[in-house]
Amino acid sequence: MWKVDRLGRSVQHLHNAIAKLKDSGVAFVSTTEGIDLTTPMGEAMFGMLAVMAQFERALIVERTRAGLARVKASGVKLGRPLLTGKVCRATLQQRERRRRAEGRGA
User: Fold this and answer.
1) CB 31 within 8 A of CB 2
2) What CA–CA distance (Å, rounded) separates 15 from 23?
3) Rg (CA), the chain
4) Which residues of the chain form beta strands (DSSP E)?
5) CA spacing 20 to 30 A to 59: which of 21, 25, 48, 98?
6) Are 40 and 52 contacting, i.e. CB atoms less than 8 angstroms apart?
7) Helices (H) and strands (E) in the chain, counts
8) How far is CA 14 from CA 18, 21, 49, 56, 74, in A?
9) Claim: this prediction has a pTM higher than 0.85
10) How many whole angstroms separate alpha carbon 43 and alpha carbon 23?
11) DSSP letter at 78?
């Protein structure tokens, strides 16, 4: 594995994943972090990194939500623009039907 935090999103998820690997006879080694779960030191380091990975994910979620709230509060409309005017849903559906009839796909 490249890094522990790529394996799971929470401490519980990481521990469950590692337990499944152990039950299958697979030894876990993180190449960039030097963690080998066949040793007590590796297990201790894994536990600490699992907690930090969960904390980092929670921070990312918190920052993303705060950023979206700030943008919405400033009046910016998020998401894909609505189809209006010449390019409306009916026009797109007609175009798709025509392309499929011609055998060109969507």
Assistant:
1) yes
2) 12
3) 24
4) 29-30, 35-36
5) 21
6) no
7) 3, 2
8) 6, 11, 10, 14, 38
9) no
10) 16
11) P
- What is the tens place of the pLDDT at every residue in 28-52? 888 788 888 888 998 898 888 888 8
Mark 55-81 as b/e (b = at least 16 C-beta within 10 Å): eeeeeeeeeeeeeeeeeeeeeeeeeee
The rounded Cα 16 to chain-centroid distance in angstroms is 18
Q: At what angle do helices 11-23 and 40-73 cross, to 10 degrees?
A: 140
Are 50 and 4 in contact by the 8 Å Cβ rule? The answer is yes
Say how many C-beta atoms besides its own lie within 10 A of residue 87's C-beta.
10
Which amino acid is residue 61, in one-letter code? V
Coil, helix or strand at residue 29:
strand
Question: What is the token pair recorded at 7?
Answer: 């394996």
Q: Residue with structure tokens 């390019």?
A: 87
